[in-house]
Every structure is written in C-alpha cells, then in structure tokens.
Fold this sequence. Notes:
Layout: H1 12-19, H2 21-28, H3 31-38, H4 43-69, H5 74-100, H6 115-130, H7 133-157, H8 159-164, H9 171-178, H10 180-198, H11 202-227
Amino acid sequence: MLRAHTTNTGLFTDQLWDRTKVLRSAIDDLEFLRHLGEGTLPLEVFRTYIEQDSLYLTGYSKALAILAAKSPDPQTAAFWATSSANAAAVESAMHDQLLTGGALPPQQGEPEHSQTCLAYVSYLIAAAATDSYAVAAAAALPCFWIYAEVGRDLAESAAKVIAADPAHPYAQWVATYGAAEFQQAAATARSLVDAAAESATEQERAAMEKAFVLAVRYELMFWDTALHPQPWPAA
C-alpha cells in the first residue's frame, strides 16, 4: 500500500501526494504488483517488465542528466547527476543480470519500447529539456517516490517468499528498490522538489503539480501494461 504522508507540514510534496491519492490507490490495486509480491507473477510477464524497465532507464538517465545541468547549485546538480549514473549503470546492470541469468524465459526478439514506455521517457526528456528546472524535477520525482513506496511494501509482502527461496527471480528487484539507499535517494529527490517549489511562482507550482500527476499516471500505466500489453499497430 502506498502509504499516506502527513500533510500538516506545509510541504509542497505533501500536496502532490494528496493530489494523486486516486492514482496511488489504483497502483495499490494493480494485479501486476499483487502477483509480484506473492511471487506468482508469470516469469514471461516479469521478463517483459524488466525489458521495458531497461529501455525506460536509458531514457530516464538522459532526463536526469539534463536536469543536473539545469540545477540551481552544485549540490543539487551532483544528486541528479549521480542518480543519472546509477540509472545507467547500477540499475541497468541489475536488469541485465536478471535478463541473462537464466532464471527468466529466453528473449523473444529484440525488445521494443511499449507505447507507454516510449510516451513516458519521451515526456520526461522533453520536460527536462524544455521546462523549467522546478517543473522538470517534479516530473522526475514519481519514479523515485512511487518506486520507493512500492519497493518497500513489496519487500514486506514478499518477505516469506524470498525467505523460502532467496534465489527467486523477483528477490533482487525487490531488494534493490526496498533498500535503504534507494529510500534515501527518494527522500532527497522529494526535498529538492520542495526546495524548488519554495522559490517558484504560483503559475510554476501549478505546472509542477501537473507534471507530477502526469508522471504518476505513467507509473500506473507502465506497470499495468506489462501484464496487459497494448501492441503497436502492425507495420
């Protein structure tokens, strides 16, 4: 369950969390995440998800690199740049190990961006390149925050499954996103968005909210289409 956060702090990100309550509830109810937590997700579906997530991370890394270049100070730039490097190297290496380790079904052709994956990464790169730093940061935040929440909750729900089978194909994914390091990165990303909102105009804050909501929509769609794919028109 994507848990509620206190909203009496006056933080802008608390407002964003409240604003996306309906979408987060829909994420909670996703059949994909329920089966993933139970360890019953079909292996071919998990492979599809990991393939799409690998394609996504390549684009997300580019968006974060652009965000780093637009950052207001060196410390902020360092965080986004490090996150970009981690997405490109650390997380991608984990995905490659999952895809080539033999636990998942063999690859069926060269992976191609799903409609949702291509739309999501294209939006994030465009936001980073053409919107203000504050709006681009708000767009990038859900990938940190939603993944941290889902990863933590899956780590709890999958604890028995992983304890019974530490080599379960889903164990490494759950461990990565439920880990304290990723949780801290999500908290830092949230604090940077709050800092950006403090100096933003009302118009820019409204744009930040729209960007965050759209990215949460894409998070929901990204997971759902792994289990319920929407094929491209035949060419």
